[in-house]
Amino acid sequence: MVNLNTIKNGWTKGTALTLTLALGLTLTACGSNSNSTAKEASASTNNSVPSTQVADQKLVLYSAGPEGLANKIIEGFEAQTGIKVEMFQGTTGKILARMEAEKSNPVVDVVILASLPSAQGLKSDGLTLPYPDAKNADKLNPEWSDSEGNYFSTSASALGIAYNTKLVSTPPTSWEDLTKPEYKGQINIPDPTLSGSALDFITGYLSDKGESGWSLFEEFSKNDVAVAGANQEALDPVITGAKSMVAAAVDYMTYKAKAKGEPVDIVYPKEGTVISPRPAAIMKSTQHEENAKAFIDYLLSDEAQKLVSDAALLPGRTDIKAENRANLDEIPLLKADWSWMNEHGTEVTDKFTKLFK
Amino acid sequence: MRNSSSLRHIRVWSIVLALLVLTIMIVVPLIEIFIQSVYRDGELQLAAPFRTLADAELFKVLLGSIWLGICVIAGTTVLALPLAWVMVNTRLARWRWLDIVFLIPFMTPPYIGSMGWILFMQKNGYLEQLVPGLGSITPAFFTFGGMVMIMSLHLFPFLYLLLRGALERIGGSLEEAGAVLGAPFMYRFRRIIAPLLLSAYGMGAMLIFVKTIAEFGTPVTFGKRIGYEVMTSEIHKYISSWPIDFGKATSLASVLLTACLLIWYAQSVLSRRFTYSLVGGKGIRRSSLHSQGRWTWIYVIFVALLLLLSIGVPYFSIIAASTMKLRGVGLAWNNFTLDYYKELLTWGSTSMRALMNSVLLSLAASTIAVILGTWFAIVIGRSRTRIERTTDLFSLLPNTVPGIVMVVGLILLWNSPWMPIPLYNTYGMVILTYVILFLPYTVQYVKSAYGQIDPSLFQAGQVFGGKPQYVFRRVLLPLIVPGMLAGWMMTFTIASRELVGSLLILPPSVQTSATYIFAQFEQGQVSLGMAMAVVSVGLTTVMLVIIESLGSKRKWNA
């Protein structure tokens, strides 16, 4: 008597073979395509690059912030050097998470983050490669960059109150105005765990005002201010009119929407705000050190700084003016203490998150 | 007899090989996660996961997840069970195209669907712009109930397909037999349909539960807005925002995993007790019991309402948002533009490349997943022995672990310094991830088709002198092909919109349609993102229509 199993057995063998074959093929196929980019890049090499680098003309960049600007900078850099840039685009939090996941086998050469304390953290963990000889580094705003050349803030944004011009006829002039009952439930604030700049504002405000600064955020909480995602997610409901204002809004996003014709505008409160610098750093684990240095030099060049200014961001170099937006000297500032902010980031985030739960 | 014993050897080897492949693909990455959860700051701390859980806040989050899962099972049942019955037993069954339409909510990425609902219901949203009087009811939507509704409307097609398949296999004759013997409808339902349906329903309900508590898109868009936190959003927080805490995230993930395994165990007991052989040699005949014309309009209204809520509302929002010049202006004819589609579909643009990436990656992944999944399902068989049940458990794991955790495990494994295969940061890694994440679909579909084939069919083939290969080709394969096809379709559709894994695993400079949409939302180009959503969902729908029409042609020829 033949039982059922014997019948089943015959075909499982065939399936198993097919499978093994399929898996094997996939693996080989994947292994072989990773070399092609290097070849392409070396073909397009031009004279301005040292010939020792010809074998590996690429650079891996993880960049936070506006994608349009990042693409333009990469385009300019590739045209000038012939180095091919591979970019991962995300928020500061996502980039740091990806780096953590890749810790044992890092691929990133240069990071551009949207938060200074994160870069300070990378430096103190010994993950950055100092590049003290960067061209034009002396023209950078010294408060935003590392004196030993571990990170360079090549652009910055100021934080303000963005509002819907259809819904708000007399814009607020101070942070305190946001605690007025007429704005109850009408205001968003970006989530400091997702938005480096929102965290910069909160810690910056507290470093200036001391412990009493918490009363502002307590009042915010009482006025039903909603903690809403990263910067763009906080701004979006204001554009569509679901909310009226964003506290600690990133200014360049607002300028960009305004330039498109959306009914939004931004004010900088009179008691002062925080500037959130956007540092770039070379990672110590880089396998393309010369390319990475060339990229930092490019970020600090006149050409790239002009691109920054065109994207409605504040240029990192003090000798270049921003156009179509408020310049650094027109924005009232809080006395933010960056080293305090770096040390107390986690603690402030925890307390803030609990307050708004 | 010699032949028979060598075949038995092959069977044993096949199942051992299957276990080995599953272990490397799925279990090892999860072990990496476990190791991460007990190694804190470079030293072994076995109590660390428990300490994480002892936190009262996190325990509340766990309960929140479970409650959401239960409510969504109830929600999907209310939608899917009547629908499956209507689509099998009434005149509407002839409208086969509806099956494709019912897949659309499931093909819509959850975070996009939720976004559509939010845009529709929020203050100054589309509903208020269309019917200003209804502005006062919208706050009621931004509650837990609204979240259950959005998730049920997203997940019900999944349960529907399983239930409809089971109802079809039950066929008309059993119920007719009941009717002939004088049983009224409710009695027939209780004593004939319900028991036969229970295993498919149990399986479906379990998967719905697991999909709900592992879902990330809706909690992160809608849940956040109403302040309802679940495990996945907490895990995501620890994995994606500074300071990164893999330890806490992986501890939470192990808890989630344990909860899911308990449910899996309960379900498998249920399924073993209530599985019947339904596919015999006599073929399946539709019941003639329920086609009375006078009720048809009720069914039509039910189906129409369901379509309005699951597709009408979200897609109205998505399409409206994708054609708006200025989002601040809202619904107005002079605010209409097709520029975003033009920008999107320009050949050689970033968006076009992202779209092509999605299609090709999902094609490769779904094909490999079907081959592997069918093999596993057949090896698992009726999961009678321990080794078969282990294989079953392993192959279903990716469905019980939240995608984001599985993906982190894969990164830890494939990017570790000792890994000899340079798969990380290549397209191969993406395909592998998709295959692993969506393998359970094929396994489920094929297993469910296979489990209900009566062994007498194989014996008949054998008695008439069919060699094992012949029996496989002419008896088994035709009966499981619909399951394979369903698995392939599911995998393709879901892989082509996969977000969480893609965000973490795509090589730099590579985008898929889902990460493109996500990036557009992050960059403030909501309209462009929504246009991509329309195009990519449209594309998968067209593919499914083509496959379905090929499938029905095959049936005609048979």
UniProtKB/TrEMBL annotation, chain A:
InterPro entries given in the database record: Ferric-bd
Protein name according to UniProt: ABC transporter substrate-binding protein
UniProt keyword list: Signal
Top-level taxon of the source organism: Bacteria
Stretches assigned to coiled coil: none
Residues in the signal sequence: 1-31
Keyword Transmembrane helix attached: no
PANTHER family: ABC TRANSPORTER SUBSTRATE-BINDING PROTEIN, THIAMINE-BINDING PERIPLASMIC PROTEIN-RELATED
